[in-house]
Write a structure and sequence with these properties.
Elements (H helix, E strand, L loop, with lengths): L5 H13 L3 H6 L3 E6 L4 H6 L10 E4 L16 E6 H7 L3 H19 L4 H6 L4
Parallel strand pairs: 1-3
Antiparallel strand pairs: 2-3
């Protein structure tokens, strides 16, 4: 287990997004990032994850591939990174930062409409 204070954890999430290739970052709009300690029951339902599993992050929103002409004037979509499970899994600071980066990449992929199945197919796990 390795812990970061909330400010460092949030800064690591922001840095993980900023480390994504520019062509991806340029296409992101109406999206915010948040850090919460634990997933909510609705996060498990949204992600089709069994409640017995550990959820490290979630995308709360409408993927780009599903947005139609009526998608405007909406609140930002949110990528949430769950602090407590990531810290519990981490061996040290470097491991925690790497895990955060992977979660951010994974959830940004969902923002772009890429499913878990497709991520497995392209060996992105």
């Amino acid at each position: 287990m390795y812990e970061l204070d909330i400010e460092d954890f949030e800064a690591t999430v922001a840095a993980a997004f900023n480390d994504l290739p520019e062509p991806f970052r340029e296409k992101v709009a109406n999206l915010e990032f948040a850090v919460e300690d634990w997933a909510r029951p609705e996060d498990y339902a949204r992600s089709s994850t069994p409640s017995s599993a550990t959820l490290l992050g979630v995308y709360r929103g409408v993927p780009l591939t599903r947005r139609g002409v009526g998608y405007n004037m909406t609140l930002p979509d949110t990528i949430v990174v769950f602090r407590q499970p990531l810290q519990r899994l981490a061996r040290d600071e470097a491991d925690l930062r790497d895990r955060i980066r992977r979660v951010v990449k994974h959830e940004v992929a969902h923002y772009f409409g890429i499913s878990d199945e497709r991520l497995r197919e392209i060996d992105a796990y």
